[in-house]
Design brief:
This protein is α/β, with parallel strands linked by helices. The protein has 13 helices and 17 strands. The structure holds 2-acetamido-2-deoxy-beta-D-glucopyranose (3 copies). Keywords: ATP-binding, Hydrolase, Nucleotide-binding, Signal.
Length: 443
Amino acid sequence: MPQLLAVLALVSGAHAASSQSLPWRYGAFIDGGSEGSRIYVMRWKPSLDPEGEIICPEIIGDKSTAPGVASFALNHTGAGASLEPLVEYTKKLMHSERGQWAHMPLYLRATAGMRLLFPEQRESILDNIRTYFRTLPFLFRDDMASVATGEEEGVFGWISANYLMGNLRPDKVPNASSTIGSLDLGGASAQIVFIPQKSIIQHAFPLRLGPHQLQVYSYSFLRFGIREAAHHAAMLVISDALMSVQSENSIKHPCFSKGYVYIPKFSYSDQSFAPIQVSMKGTSDFEGCEALVKRIFDKNAPCLIEQCSFYGVYQPRVLDVKFLAFSHFADIAGDLGVPEKGRLEDLLVAARYVCSLSRAQLDLLFKRVQDETIRMHLCFHATFAVTLLHSGYGIEENDILFKSNHNGQPIDWAVGAMMYAINQDNKLSRPLVNVSTAHVLDV
Ligand SMILES: *[C@@H]1O[C@H](CO)[C@@H](O)[C@H](O)[C@H]1NC(C)=O
Ligand SMILES: *[C@@H]1O[C@H](CO)[C@@H](O)[C@H](O)[C@H]1NC(C)=O
Ligand SMILES: *[C@@H]1O[C@H](CO)[C@@H](O)[C@H](O)[C@H]1NC(C)=O
């Protein structure tokens, strides 16, 4: 202990406790998404007074790999090894900081793709990843590789958005009007997080950020990401067809364009088998598409606490909340040319338009959307996004920012997750001072 105090006194004495002059600390975070894994290597200025400051990491490099870890459900053997390119990338990037590796945390948080698996499959995959991570020279404990809960994923996105927008400051208590609500849309799940004007009755998530102790409303809808929603809609089309006398060849899907044949692919990888193979002819029909998408949302479920979004889920009023809609929401708005500072009405107009186009018109007018699968899904994605925001969450006249970056920094739950981890753990928020004497600080 005297040793520790001596070290701290030395540092604070020399630099008047200015965190800016302290050497960077580093860490890596893997976002194990349903569609692929991405590692973010980050750095941050540590603090001598973690209770008085909010520490924020910045990304210094990132790399992704596909498929996602959840695709190892039927054979977990390769799950850890599939992340090797990400680890090698990190070692190369951090080569000059080798002395810090043992203090550099390596996290993996998997998301909705893993939430959808059977528990035994999920644990086998995590065990395989942990076994691999234990062999690496970075700071790692088994609990650092896990599945994030939907609520955590949402809150981490909220932290990232609000930090980048300048809403999280040590001298201001974050409240309903000084923060922005976050809307995240992934492949398999969708998250809504905000601080309401009135108190939160359910689904409150407590949070410590520097001097602040706060609560946000956080809810995650598993299976309401765009891929899961597309599967769900396709299953409704198929079951409707089975109920009628239609032959399999004439199944029609209103959310795809005339001249396009849609063959839903129900799995996330080639390893798992598809339950059914059907082709559907697009009909370029917005009204039909909207009606189909609305059936995914159960608005009639009993609402046990007053104010519900859908499926009977409690949600405080969103009337005056400003929102930032990122990830796939921002991609969809961008693809459709909806302005970043938009309203729901703009997205609705764009959805109506894109859903009216034939395949040939779509190819011509949306040439800039280079990925053909995404181009063909524009109508479904736009209609789903509008329906989720409006019928689902009850958002109407609210200001919505559709964007995934702010001042060149990505709005991403992974950054928020790292920020959360650092601000909860003094071992990560404090300086190492001198790497070779760092054990002194590991109190
Ligand atoms: C699982 O994958 C590994 C590596 O890809 C392979 O060697 C093994 O044979 C597979 N096991 C099964 C049961 O398919
Ligand atoms: C919310 O925070 C802002 C900025 O700190 C402050 O001006 C405002 O009075 C606060 N509002 C409420 C309702 O506390
Ligand atoms: C860190 O500690 C080592 C060994 O105790 C010493 O050789 C080195 O000069 C120190 N580095 C700094 C920057 O103080």
